[in-house]
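Re-run with default settings, no changes from the original entry. Doing this only to confirm the output is reproducible before filing.
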Amino acid sequence: MRDLGVGFGYLMKGQRWVAQHGKQYGWGLLPGLITLVLYAAALVSLALWGIDLVGWATPFADDWSSPWLGLFRGFLTALLFALALLLSVITFTAVTLLIGDPFYESLSEQVDISECGHAPESGLPLWRDLWISARDSLRIVVRALVWGVLLFALGFIPVVGQTVVPVIGFCVTGFFLAEELAAVAMQRRGIELRERLALLRSRKRLAWGFGTPLAVAFLVPFVAVFLMPGAVAGATLMTRDLLGENGSDGDGSDGGGSRTAVGGQDDDAATPRIPRT
């Protein structure tokens, strides 16, 4: 249970880090604001013309008598908007990270530098980093959607569907959020998606403690925008813990200067700087 508190602590430390680095925080807000505008425009368009879209997709109902035609298409329009809203919540983080990859990578590098004096680099060109990020984000979104469909079906079970299932849903969402955010720092270290998932599964409570509060907060898009920079910073600190770069205690305590990696090896030797090509 201790890891739950440690994970939440990294989330708070990340928010504190960006609060102390105003320039990094300001740049980190831009991708979230861009994503929010795009999503808001799409949802407003759907609200305005959704009924027309449903009418075009259901020509077989044109001859239905009133009120059945209005009720049927109104229900489908509401369902379409609800699904679009759910999809926007699920994909908001992935799209924001994709749009803001250069911003968040720079922010994550600054967190590493503040912790140990240097930042590991992938050594890959920017286009390659963007491609890997987009590919992995799509894989995570697909996994999250599969879980979402399963939990939606379980939601129809009396009592359990209204109590246990929502809690499981937030934990699952929180785990995937933790993976997406930690991917910024882990990708710079050359850690592939399969390895990232294995690392987080080895300390699920740490991922839940970090990601589940974010999953709750991210239900409100405006909140997501303002928390994203700190979430990336916190995920970088959490990544250092998962990889043993914070020292052998693994408690995620604050501190500056050089760190000692697991096994007593100096952190500079454990994670050499590889120039970007």
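The radius of gyration is 21 Å. Residues 248-277 have pLDDT under 50 and may be disordered.
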